[in-house]
Amino acid sequence: MKIFLDMVGCRLNQAEIDALAIDLVNRGSEIVTDPSVADTIIVNTCCVTAKASADSRKMIRHYKNNFSAKVVSTGCWVSVDAHQAVEISDQIYLNDQKELIPEFLLQSPADTIVELDRKPKLGHRNRTRGFVKVQDGCNNCCSFCLTTIARGRSISTLPEIVLDRIKQLERMEIKEIILTGVQLGSWGKDLIPKSSLSALLEYLLADSEMPRIRLSSIEPWDIDEGFLSFLSNRRIMPHFHIPLQSGSNSILRAMRRPVTQERFSQVLGLIRDVNPKASITTDVISGFPGETDELFEESFNFIETCNFSGGHVFSFSAMPGTAAFDMNEKVKPATIKARTNRLLTYFQNQQKVYQKQKIGQIDQILFESRRKAFLNNSYSGFSGDYLKVVCDCDESVINQIRTVKITGLDDHGDLLGEIMP
User: Fold this and answer.
1) 128-237 against 359-419: fold identical
2) Cβ atoms within 10 A of the Cβ of 232, count?
3) How do the residues of the chain divide into helix, strand and coil, expressed in percent and rounded to 5?
4) What do you get for the CA distance between the two ends of the chain, in Å?
5) Residue 420's closest CA among 401, 408, 78, 189?
6) Cross-strand pairs, 309
7) Cα 96 versus chain centre, distance
8) Which of the chain's termini has less CB crowding within 10 Å, N or C?
9) Interhelix angle for 293-306 vs 261-274, to 10°?
10) How does DSSP classify residue 318?
11) What's the CA dihedral at 326, 330, 333, 336 to 10 degrees?
12) What is the pLDDT of residues 6-36, one digit of tens each?
């Protein structure tokens, strides 16, 4: 069977389609990079925002209307709106059925598996990095979020299973993994006996040889002394994405986020005490119900004090089924748009400031792809602090970690570099 995979959403969804691709090929399927030659198209959906839900529906309909393949949908949007998903898909799988897709779809039991020697290519979703899902679900109940409905409470993957997955990726010559989860920092709290993300990191660093381990988003309340003890390890990449969502204490309370300005500042200080050069990025929602002009200014002023190296901004969109959907004091769309644009401009400027600080420095870059639009043989990859770097090179350096001197910033917003001999 020829299968095409696509997704909407976060790194966790990327980890899930990576795992699906490996399992499907192990059971005899062929992963294709062109949907027109596929027998089956699988779409992993998202519902983190109203736009993500709409994008999920749009993607399913696109494949259903334009290709002859059977369209199978799964993921968060499917799990919260199964009735509509059934209407526009040929087949659906809820989140708790997702890992059974290869067996159900191919009617192929696990004992037919033959292990791959390389990671399947996923077309425009292809990455030389490996995404490893270590946790699912969330124990928090943010008032704007459907995740606890879509994925349930936090469930940790057993450490030996995580290690087996990483060793499999090592055999495929993967040089970097990203540990992903809905609430990554809650890993281990549901296990008996209880454990922690820091214990998982200690285990993986001791028993694997993966050169680079990167963490996906981690909530501020999950950062503790144990976690901080690993931040100076050269194999842990120095980029930490810590969602803030609002810099106003009153809006944070309305969001049901168990953090304050004071605690968030403390967390940033603790990280920078251990690794002053670490890149810290964040997420912010603009226009949450009740966000007056005064509260937005409070939030913006606090964000400025955090000295982030970049960030993502989301315009508030009311999601049916969340507590925020029924909140009063809605912010006007024009006001939300203006606030979003102001925040986007701020974070873009912050990223440029951070990038310019890198010029003249020596860094380790994992190269991921060739820049085909360029006349020269240009290759792009990522630094440890997750900045894209472009270098000219006469030979392929894809999936190699090379020492690079950062020389400048191009018109596309990417760093330029020279590969050192």
Assistant:
1) no
2) 11
3) 40, 20, 40
4) 45
5) 401
6) none
7) 20
8) C
9) 10
10) P
11) -110
12) 999 888 888 888 888 888 888 888 899 899 9
Domain 359-419: state its class: mainly beta
Tell me the C-alpha distance between 116 and 13, whole Å: 21
**CATH topology for the 128-237 domain:** Transcription Regulator spoIIAA (3.30.750)
Do residues 147 and 138 make contact, with C-beta atoms less than 8 angstroms apart? yes
Could you tell me the strand order of the sheet in which 212-215 lies? 130-133, 176-180, 212-215
- What is d(CA 115, CA 99) in angstroms, rounded to the nearest whole number? 17
Q: Which residues contact 69 (CB under 8 A, 6 or more apart)?
A: 4, 35, 38, 39, 40, 41, 63
- CATH code for the domain defined by 1-125: 3.40.50.12160
Look at the alpha carbons of 285, 12, 119, 41 in this order and tell me if their dihedral is positive or negative: negative
Report d(CA 157, CA 74) in Å as an integer. Answer: 20
What's the rounded Cα separation, in Å, for the pair 419 and 392? 8
3-state secondary structure of 3: strand
Choice between 123 and 102, residue whose per-residue pLDDT is larger: 102
Q: What residue ranges do the domains of the chain occupy?
A: 1-125, 128-237, 359-419
Angle at 382 between CA 419 and CA 196, to 5 degrees: 135
Confidence of residue 374 (pLDDT cuts 50, 70, 90): low
For residue 291, give Cα distances in angstroms to 80, 141, 255: 27, 20, 11
Residues in the chain: 421
The Cα 5–Cα 284 span in angstroms is: 30
Whole-number pLDDT of residue 118: 62
Residue 372 — very low, low, confident or very high, per pLDDT cuts 50/70/90?
A: low
Which residues are bridge partners to 286 per DSSP? 315
C-alpha 364/C-alpha 318 separation (Å) is 42
Give the tokens for residue 201.
Answer: 């990191």
Alpha helices in 208-332 (DSSP H): 225-228, 249-255, 261-274, 293-306
Cβ atoms of residues 408 and 416 within 8 Å? yes
| Tokens describing residue 119 | 């990671």
Cβ burial of 60 (10 Å; 0-12, 13-18, 19+) is buried
The one-letter code for the residue type at 265 is: S
Task: For the chain, give the mean pLDDT.
Answer: 91
Encode pLDDT of 178-226 as tens digits: 999 999 999 999 999 999 999 999 999 999 999 999 999 999 999 988 8
